[in-house]
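User: My advisor, Dr. K., asked me to get a structural model of this assembly before our group meeting. I'm new to this, so sorry if the format is off. These are the inputs:
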Amino acid sequence: MSKLLWQVFVVVIVLLGWFAGNHFNVFNRDVIPPMTDVAYQFIAAWARPEFLPAIWSTLSDALMGIFFAAVLAVPLGLLIGSLRAVEIATRTLLDFGRAFPVVALLPIFVLLIGANSAMKIVTIAIACFFPILLQTIYGVRRQEPVIVDTVRSFRIPHHLRFFRVLLPSALPYIATGIRIAATVSILVAVGTEVIMPVPGVGRQISVASINDEVALAFAYVIYAGFLGVILTTLWEIAEERMLPWARRTR
Amino acid sequence: MIRPKLQTVKTHENGDGVASKAPPMVVRDLSKSYGSIEVISGLNMHVDPGEIICIVGPSGVGKTTLLRSLSGLMPPTSGSVSVGGKVITQPLEEIGIVFQDYRGSLMPWMRTLENVAFPLQGRGIGKAEREQRAQECLDTVGLSDAGQKYPWELSGGMQQRVAIARALAYDAHILLMDEPFGSLDAQTRLGLEDLVLDLRSRLKISVIVVTHDIDEAVYLADRVVVLAGKPASVVDNVDVDLGMNRDQIKTKSDPRFVEYRNRVLSEIMRVRD
Ligand SMILES: Nc1ncnc2c1ncn2[C@@H]1O[C@H](COP(=O)(O)OP(=O)(O)OP(=O)(O)O)[C@@H](O)[C@H]1O
Ligand SMILES: [Mg+2]
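Assistant: The format is fine. Below is the predicted structure of the whole assembly, which you can bring to the meeting.
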């Protein structure tokens, strides 16, 4: 409870600072619009016909991107993680992939796929693929030595070991990978929409700034942030439900 | 309680005339090195059917190393461990292990009953029979009602009993325990010591317990094996002649108990100096 209180407190302080900054003309109004204007646009945005479709477009494409990334990365991660030689052989490649700036490939994707939702989903999926893959591999590799001894001493056969020991013990790590992917997905979705003419919250941000509606652009930026927070929070709740044991034992 | 048997096993007679299902274990000239460092050298010992052996020795002497070799988890560098006349090269069905880190050895994603039944699944035993046997073994360790709980919902002592139940369900005739009660409070510890004595007399299994606690070693053991030296070997075998029925208060105040304890203690002190 007191944790929540502190979090609210910090938000209030930031908002007050913002308000004061504008009030005493510390901030340039063209760069940082008054908090009250942004607050107004934040609410008024709901009346705009393009608002909900934009939110939905960003959210649904982000979810699709995570979904495709997970469908590919989890099985591949389980495979790579359980074969030591493969894990070592692919290490450099994976480190490279993790650090690769996917957004730099956008012009190529546009040429290949066109400026549409499909292109956005592909970009998100690629960006989400690596955190999920790496977490899955890590989860499979990170077996507790006592569990390894237990499995050996009770002569557990390979298929049982995979499905009842390796997989469950990797699940919390896979879940972490997806949690990271949830944040990444919104970042990449909005980034793509800002740069490329594809629908979504990012698109509205760039349209608003072109029209000099800085406060509206700010309101959309805050909504984009909220999308990331909501997605992560929902996933954490789901995680707590599906893997009740994970948090208690770590 | 009648324990269901997986296979018919020859019974073995030990010196006291107790019919035990446990095969005898014999360790011959066992040596173990990690790299160039020899930890155990030329160690000989034997465990008769139905015996409780306690292995004591200072920290780092090689007790865990020895227990892992006895279990077949780790091959010795030279020498051999044989069970029922056969040299072991990998973990056996007859041997159950209770690890020192019982918290870590139970799978947190399985309920207690599943944890106990899981090793039986690997043997191709059907679900109904698995669960029935697991339940019986939970009954044996006094945890009849804990089957549907997760390990992390249980106290340390209960988790340790689950680990014991799992080894029993696996039909272990030889139970290896590595400092099994080290991190438990005194009361729980005494209760589990009596559980071990009780299991031995009911199920006629052999038990090998590694412990730091000399009182515990003498209280539990038919024989205390004292390990010492670098590299380690057996420096003393103390036969503890206190009978099968022991009592935490009566036995521990028995003058013979005190005598055994002092002998083991002086053995350890002598080597330490
Ligand atoms: N995997 C290993 N690689 C190298 N050395 C090891 C390894 N395991 C144990 N040792 C060394 O072997 C010696 C014996 O270790 P062991 O764990 O068997 O001792 P222990 O008697 O069980 O000690 P404790 O009572 O503290 O548990 C120690 O000096 C330890 O450092
Ligand atoms: Mg040890």
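One thing worth pointing out at the meeting: Chain B touches chain A at residues 68, 71-73, 90-91, 93, 95-97, 99, 101, 104-105, 107-110, 118-119, 121-123, 150, 152, 166, 170 (CB under 8 Å).

User: Perfect, thanks a lot.
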